[in-house]
Amino acid sequence: MKVIHISTLERWPPGAIALNRLHDGLISLGIHSEIYAQNKVSTDMGIMSLPLTKATFAHKLKSIEENNLKRRIKKVNTDLGRIRFSTSTTPNYFYQTLNESDADVVHLHWVNNGCLSIHDIGMINKPIAWTLHGAWPFTGGCEITWDCQEYKEACENCPMIRSTDRPNLGHAIHNHKTRCWKNSDITAIAPSKWMADQAKKSSLFKNREIAIIPNGLNTATFRPIAKKDARAILGLGDNEHLILFGSENIAHRHKGLSLLIGALENDILEGIGKKIRLMTFGADSGIKHITHYPQSDFGIVWDEHFMPILYSAADVFVAPYLVDSFGQTLSESLSCGTPVVAFGTGGPLDIVDHQRNGYLAKPYCEEDLARGIRWVLESKFWPQLSTNARKKAMGCFDVKIVAEKHARLYKNMIAGKIA
Amino acid sequence: MRKVILAQILSKLGRNILVTILPQSRWDHHDRYIMKNNTPKSLTILHVSKWERWPGGAIAVNRLHEALIQNHANSKVLVENRVSSYDPSIVQVTPPKVSYTKQAYAWLRNLRDQGSLASPNDSTVSLFSPNLRPNYIARHINNTDCDLVHVHFARDNFLPIYEVSRIKKPIVWTLHNCWPFTGGCQIQWNCKRYQKDCGKCPLLKSSDEKDLSYKVLGSKKRYWSDLNMTLIAPSRWIYDAAKRSSLFCNKRIELIPNGLDTSLFRPIDKKTARSVLGLPKNKAIILFGAENSTGQPHKGFSHLVQALNSKRLKPKSKQTELVVFGSSDPKEKRLFQFRQHYLGTIREQRFMALLYNAADVFVAPYLVDNLPSTVIESISCGTPVASFNSGGLNDIIDHKKNGFLAKPHDSDDLAEGIDWILDHIASNHLSKNAREKAIEVFDQNIVAQKHISLYQDIIGNTKR
Question: A367, CA 20 to 30 Å: which among A41, A47, A286, B195?
C-alpha cells in the first residue's frame, strides 16, 4: 500500500508536526508513505518538494487575481483575530502527477496557500483522505467557524467578508467546492468528536464518511522526566507551583491569553500553599510579566526534544484555548504526565477526562478555570492524576496506535473503491 | 496591473531576482516605531547576513547581535529570510524599486554567470558563489540610519560584489569563511591561487587562465580597493590566509573571536543531564556532531569511524557509547561495535547544552574549519574536545589542557586523543580549564565589547 501525503508546510505549525509523526508511524508499520510538501526544509529522503508544473499565462493571471482578493480580505477581518481566510482558487495542475503515480490513497492535510486548489482536489481520481486540521475543507474559506452557522447551508452571509454583495466571496468558494467535489471520493478524518460533529452538519461533508482519529505523538520522546532533574536544568526552584502555558503563538486571539490572565488574577488562587510561578513558551511570548506572579519565558522552542523538559517541570499545563480542532500541546503534556486544565469545548473534550487526568472548566468562565488550576495544584492525588495522564496518552495518542487506525481506514477506502 | 504582471513574470524567470509586489511589510513599520521611541544610543549597527540563525556558522551572527543589544548598542540584522518572525530588530530585505531595464540587465548578467559554471555538480554549486549579479540592495542599506555596516554572509547574490562598493558607510566584514578574499570558493583547501589572481580554478575544474574565478576576484579588486573596509578574523588561521591574499594584504584586519552566551552553555550536573536524555550513567559517552555531520565529507565522520575501529579504542567498545547530532540514522548502521544514538538536526540551544554536558568528550574531526561554534559551545559546557590541529581549532583548544590536538588527518592520533581524554576526565582539571577558557575568551560580553571599541575606532577615523 502506498500513501502520498500532501501539505503546504512540512514542519512548523502543529498540523504539519502531526503529519510528520504520522509519516514516521506509517513507515514503521511497513506502509510506503511519502510526503509532498510545498516548502521542504528537512533533508529527509521520504519528503519531496512539490514539483513546479509549467504555469500557463491564464494561471498567472488567476494567481494575481487571488492575491488581490487576499489583500482585500486582510483589510476586513482584523477584528476577528489573525485567522486565515483562504481562497485556494489558483490551479497548479499537481493532480496530473498524482493521478499518474502508483499511490493507492492520497492523504491531504493543510493544503491552502497555493499548494492544491479546489479544482485540483476535485480532479484527483484516487480515494482521498483528508485530515481536518482546520475547518477550511467544509467552509467558504475560513479556518475557524466561531459561532457562524452559515457553512451548514451555503455561506451566503459571511461575517468575515462583511459584504452585502450576493453572491459574495464565501458563497462563491462554497459553490465552487460543491461543484468541483461532486464526484470525488473524500473521506474526512476528524481529530476530535467536536470537529466531526461540525463536519457532519456541513452541507459539503454531510454525505461523506467521517472517521475520528486523534493526532499521534511519539510517547518515547514525550515521556515523564523526574521533576527535580527537569527543574534543575531549567534553573527553577523545587518549592514553587509551576504553571505552564504556551502554544505555537500565544498572542493569537483563539489561544485565550486574556482568559488565563483573568483566571490567574482571580481571588480563588490566593492563599495557596506555595508560591506560584508562570512559565510560558511560544512565539510572541516576549510579553513579560503578564500577571503579578513571577514569570519565566522560554520563547520559541525550536526542537521537540526540549519540550518534555518543560512539560515535566510544570505542575499543571493550562490550555485556555477558545477553539481547537485537537490540541497537540494537551496530548503532549498528558504524555509527559502533567495534568491539564482546559475549557470543556472542542478538541480538549476528547483529550482531558474531567478530574481524572486534568480539569475541564466551564467554557470561557475565568473563575472555573482558576478553580481548576487550584484543584490540580492542591490535589492530594497529584501522582495519581499524573499516572492517569500518561496512561491515557499511551492508550490513545501513541503514534503506533494512531498509525494502525489510519492504515485500517486506508484499507477500507481502497476496498470501497473496488466494490 | 501591468507592473504586477511583469513583476510576477520576472520573479518566475529568475528565481532569485528580488522583486516584490507587496507593500512594505508591517514589521518595517514596527521597526521604525521602535527606532523612534528608543533613547538615542551611541552606535547603530546594521548587520547584513544572508541567514540569521542557521545553517551552521550563521548562529554567530545572531549571538553577536544579541550581545551588542545587551551592551547598549543599537543593532539590527538585515536578512534574506527571517526565521524568528517576531523579533522586530531582525529585518527582512524589502528590495528597492528599480527600473525594469535594470532588472532585466541583472537577469541577463545572471544568465551569463550561470553559463560559466559549466556543468556544475552539486558540491561545486554549494561551495562556489560568483555573486556578481547586481540587485540594488545597497540603496536599501544606505536608506537606513546606521553608522556602520557589518557584513557576515554575502553569498548567493544576497550582497553582490558591486553593491558592496555602493555602500556609503564604513564597512566591517567578518571572515566566517574564505569567500571575501577568494575568487568564489568558501574554503580554498590547498589552492594558493587566491594570493595572486585566481583563474585555473580547481573547484571549477577549468584550465583557463581567465575563467569565472578570475573574473570574480578581478571584480572584487576593481570595486573594493578604495573602500573603507575593516576585516574581522575570528581565528588566527583565517587571519594568516587573509593577510596573504592579494585582495586584503593592505587592509586592516582585526582578530576577534566569535562569542557565545556562557550562561546558556553552562556546566550542568552530568548525572542529571544523562537521566533527562535517557543515556546510561555508568558508561563513557563520545559526542560527535555538526551540520549534516555524517553527510559532508569535510566534517570528518570517516576519520572518527577509523579512530573508533583502531586498536586503541576497539577494546573499550563495551563501556562506551557514541552520540551523533546533526544527522539521522545512516543506512549502514554497523560501521563499528559501539552503541550509537543518532539525534537528527537539533536547533534548540538549551538542548545542545544538555548534550554537551552529558558527554565525556566531544570529538571534532573537521578537516578544516574556521572557528567551529560546536567546539566553543563544548568547552563552555566544560566538556573537553579532541580534534585535529587544523584551521582555527588551535585557537580554542590548548593541547592537553582543555582538549587534545591530534596530528592533522591522522585517525590513530585522534583515537589516542579520545582515549587520553577519557582517562583523564575523572580528575576534573580538563573541564575546569575548558570552562575558564570559554569565560575568559569567548564570553559574548567580552566579544561584544571588543566589537564596540572597534566600531567606535572606525567611526572616529572616518569622521576625521
Answer: A286
- pLDDT tens-digit profile of A102-159? 899 999 998 877 778 898 899 999 999 999 988 899 998 888 887 888 899 888 887 7
Is the distance from CB of B107 to CB of B17 less than 8 angstroms? yes
Q: Number of CB pairs < 8 Å for A and B?
A: 57
Q: pLDDT tens across B134-156, in order?
A: 777 888 888 888 889 999 988 77
Q: What is the mean pLDDT of chain B?
A: 81
Q: Which CATH class is domain A2-216+399-415?
A: alpha beta
Per the CB < 8 A criterion, the answer to whether A138 and A204 are in contact is yes
- Cβ–Cβ contact B8 with A under 8 A: yes
The ranges assigned to domains in chain A are 2-216+399-415, 227-396
Instruction: Return the exposure string of B11-38: e unless at least 16 CB atoms fall within 10 Å of the residue's CB, then b.
Output: beebeebbbeeeeeeebeeebeeebeee
The sheet with strand A275-283 has its strands ordered as A295-297, A275-283, A240-249, A316-319, A340-343, A358-361
Over B62-111, what HEC string results? HHHHHHHHHCCCEEEEEECCCCCCCCCCEEECCCCCCCHHHHHHHHHHHH
Helix axes B349-358, B373-380, angle to 10 degrees: 60
Q: Fold match between A2-216+399-415 and A227-396?
A: yes
Of A223, A283, A303, the CB nearest to B86: A283
- Using alpha carbons, list the distances in angstroms from residue B200 to A104, B135, B178, B205, B208: 53, 28, 18, 7, 5
Quote the crossing angle between the two packed helices B411-424 and B429-437, to the nearest 10°.
110
Cα–Cα distance between A286 and B100 in angstroms, integer?
41
Number of Cβ atoms within 10 Å of the Cβ of B448: 24
Q: Which residue of B has its CA nearest to A232?
A: B272
Q: Please answer yes or no on whether A61 and B5 come within 8 Å at the CB atom.
A: yes
Quote the Cα angle for A398-A403-A407, to 5°. Answer: 155
User: pLDDT band at residue A372, thresholds of 50, 70 and 90?
Assistant: very high
Rounded Cα distance, B355 and A287, in Å: 30
C-alpha cell at position A385: 492524576
pLDDT per position as a tens digit, B354-408: 999 999 999 999 988 888 999 999 999 999 999 999 888 989 999 999 999 999 8
Q: How far apart are the first and last CA of chain B?
A: 50
Contact state of B272 with A55 under an 8 Å Cβ cutoff: no
Strands of A128-194, DSSP E: 128-131, 186-190
- 3-state DSSP call for residue A82? coil
* Domain A227-396 classification at class level: alpha beta
Q: How far apart are the first and last CA of chain A?
A: 17
